């Protein structure tokens, strides 16, 4: 595992990332439950621009749960590379899918279960081949990286595309296409991860006794983080209100992971010193996750029936079923009780005697 040998920070970041996935996966369920309660009461829905969810305690419980998960995620980014922490978000897909089938009655078919397994396997491969980011130990070095022309171009593209999605694509396709609002959350989320990394460095320097509070960059990153999180919460609520949780969560994971990996590769040069096998492993793991998410999303409404099996399996199943029926019939003939037939015979004899008595 790249850059992980003997570093306690790696295991701390790994544990925090796992806890973060559990809390974030549960937060989707609590938020969805709150939004459904509001819909049953006839309140203005979030998908229609309403904000009645701010008075729903279940929604606030989900927000608190997400806050705990994001805090753990925040700390994980401080201790470990972003390309290591972000793929573990696939576990939140599994948590959300299992809980939604239990508490929201959103059935998860066999394709969805296979998709969850593939997502976990792909995440494991990505963790094994995780790259090592360039060391950023001070706000000054973070400021130099933020001034990099490649990151500036990336940030401008993210902002322009998000504005187009919000003001052009949102009113037209937001209620029919799950990608519109989720793309906004994912694109803005990639910038929020960069802010989190910078604030983590600022907190380290603050605890070390350095005058970080006098540095303007820390405050700028804090304001940008608040704005990014606010935008993410708003459009994630709209996506959850319109579409099923089992759809929003995996799609959000794939797009968010892609955006964060791209941003981290540009900002922290994580891929610059990777060897070929780690590059292939990381790409293969991510493509495995995408395949799993595709199974979870594309076949969510398709029931798995015996008619979907190949013809030779259907024939084998029919032959096996026929053999079972013949075996049951044979056993029923062998073990047929004699008492009912005797009762029937005695009953017919009594009926005959009664008829003869009437004739006499």
UniProtKB/TrEMBL annotation:
- Say where the protein is mainly found: membrane
Q: Which domain of life is it from?
A: Eukaryota
Query: How does the entry describe its membrane topology?
Result: Multi-pass membrane protein
- Which InterPro entries does the annotation name? EmrE-like, Mg_trans_NIPA
Chain intervals with Acidic residues compositional bias: 349-360
| Keywords from the UniProt entry | Membrane, Transmembrane, Transmembrane helix
Task: Return the annotated region ranges for Disordered.
Answer: 330-360
Name under which the protein is recorded: Magnesium transporter NIPA2-like isoform X1
Species of origin reads Apteryx mantelli (North Island brown kiwi)
Taxonomic lineage of the native organism: Eukaryota, Metazoa, Chordata, Craniata, Vertebrata
